Amino acid sequence: MLTAAQVKSLSQPGRxxxxxxxxxxxxxxxxxxxxxxYQLNGKRREMG
Length: 48
What we know:
Elements: H1 4-9, E1 14-19, E2 22-26, E3 32-40, E4 43-47
Antiparallel strand pairs: 1-2, 2-3, 3-4
C-alpha cells in the first residue's frame, strides 16, 4: 500500500500499484492521477 509520503516523493513517470486494482499514474510531465483497473464481462477496463 502506498503511503501519502510515498506518493508525494514519487516523481518517475510510470504506473505504481497500490492495492486491489488501484494504481498511481505519473505522466512524463509529472502529473499524478489515480487509475482503477477492473474486469467486466471478461474485458479489462480502466477508470480514472
